[in-house]
């Protein structure tokens, strides 16, 4: 539908910072096109370790592996850890790949509920862990699709649960550079549970380089040994040119990342305020670049709402049901689009709600 405005994509609309582009062109011209070590360029792993320290997350370069996007990191970690029949806890709602990866490996997905504002429902979570005895739980903050972040209080409660129970955590923090709160909280900030935690990060969103396919995972050396077997035989290494690009990004482009974050925050405020004025029930997102309004009061299922919005108002957004059963009655809007596009789309949504409903 060429005349439609799409607010569906999970990729920033910014250009890759020029210095990153130049570093990659230089790397090609200097013939840095060979395999890197399986685990990735040492210098880049050193810079990632340093960058993570700014979030109070401590990993040594030996505990960091470069992957083909966060996607490969997730599949490699799950492949290393999940045996057929193992139970894995996944937030309801979440990025759809967790569910698919676990099923691909013959694992059993157990969804854990979230509160109405998409924060952790800690007491339900504890009950589920006691009853279901899952091997792994997935944490995903800042969240796709809700934009929720982990609060200090929830982080601390989670810490004591993980410390006391026999469970491992895969924490997907691919949107960590896009947090609109003063402080960043992560379960990977505790040293006493670090052997139970695997951290997944990446550069797709941070440097707006989704197609360059570079992510990473961090784990203790024992877990890393197993994950590396999967990574090595699946892909050998992450793309060398992208690694040189990300290295330049971490060295010299963090101010551009900050500019992108501020721009996303402006868009977040704009989209939230417009949706509120139109009459949506919506929670203010605190990170990433998604907002997840409820469409329940309009009397349609998620799919019906999105289909009607597309056909009648020519605006494409994603039905919440795509992110798990808990997403029914919601829709995901990505605000990784220009202010002009966002304004045009919200004008259309406003007219659609006023005229049709
Ligand atoms: C929560 C989350 N994790 C991981 C990914 C994978 O990203 P990539 O493979 O580009 O690093 C995405 C992409 O949208 C995501 O939203």
From TrEMBL:
Task: Output the Gene Ontology terms for molecular function.
Answer: transaminase activity
Keyword tags: Aminotransferase, Pyridoxal phosphate, Transferase
InterPro entries in the cross-refs:
Aminotransferase_I/II_large (IPR004839), AspAT/PAT-like (IPR050596), NHTrfase_class1_PyrdxlP-BS (IPR004838), PyrdxlP-dep_Trfase (IPR015424), PyrdxlP-dep_Trfase_major (IPR015421), PyrdxlP-dep_Trfase_small (IPR015422)
Reported EC number(s) for this entry are 2.6.1.-
Name its co-factor(s): pyridoxal 5'-phosphate
Q: Which domain of life is it from?
A: Bacteria
| A Pfam family | Aminotran_1_2
Report domain Aminotransferase class I/classII large positions: 4-349
Family the entry assigns: Belongs to the class-I pyridoxal-phosphate-dependent aminotransferase family.
PANTHER family reported for this sequence: ASPARTATE AMINOTRANSFERASE (PTHR46383), ASPARTATE AMINOTRANSFERASE-RELATED (PTHR46383:SF3)
Protein name from the UniProt record: Aminotransferase
Instruction: State the organism of origin.
Output: Clostridium omnivorum
């Amino acid at each position: 539908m060429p005349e439609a405005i799409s607010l569906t994509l999970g990729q920033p609309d910014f250009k890759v910072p020029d210095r990153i582009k130049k570093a990659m062109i230089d790397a090609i011209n200097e013939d840095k096109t060979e395999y890197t070590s399986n685990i990735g360029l040492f210098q880049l792993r050193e810079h990632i370790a340093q960058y993570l320290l700014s979030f109070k997350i401590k990993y040594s370069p030996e505990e960091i592996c470069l992957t083909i996007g966060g996607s490969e990191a997730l599949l490699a970690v799950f492949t290393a850890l999940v045996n057929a029949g193992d139970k894995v806890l996944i937030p309801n709602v979440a990025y759809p790949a967790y569910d698919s990866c676990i099923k691909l490996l013959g694992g059993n997905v157990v969804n854990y509920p979230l509160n109405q504002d998409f924060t952790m429902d800690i007491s339900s979570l504890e009950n589920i862990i006691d009853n279901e005895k899952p091997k792994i739980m997935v944490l995903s903050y800042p969240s796709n699709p809700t934009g929720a972040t982990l609060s200090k209080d929830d982080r601390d409660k989670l810490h004591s649960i993980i410390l006391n129970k026999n469970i491992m955590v895969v924490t997907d923090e691919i949107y960590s550079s896009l947090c609109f709160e003063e402080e960043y909280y992560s379960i990977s900030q505790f040293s006493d549970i670090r052997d139970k935690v695997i951290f997944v990060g990446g550069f797709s969103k941070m440097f707006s380089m989704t197609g360059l396919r570079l992510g990473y995972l961090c784990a203790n050396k024992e877990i890393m040994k197993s994950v590396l077997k999967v990574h090595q035989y699946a892909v050998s290494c992450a793309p060398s040119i992208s690694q040189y690009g990300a290295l330049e990004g971490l060295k010299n482009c963090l101010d551009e990342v900050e500019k992108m974050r501020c721009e996303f925050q402006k868009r977040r405020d704009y989209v939230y305020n417009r949706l509120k004025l139109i009459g949506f029930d919506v929670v203010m997102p605190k990170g990433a670049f998604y907002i997840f309004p409820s469409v329940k009061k309009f009397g349609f299922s998620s799919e019906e709402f999105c289909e009607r919005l597309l056909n009648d108002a020519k605006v494409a957004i994603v039905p919440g049901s795509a992110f798990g059963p808990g997403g029914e009655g919601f829709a995901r809007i990505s605000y990784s689009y220009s202010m002009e596009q966002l304004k045009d789309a919200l004008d259309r949504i406003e007219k659609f709600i006023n005229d049709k409903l």
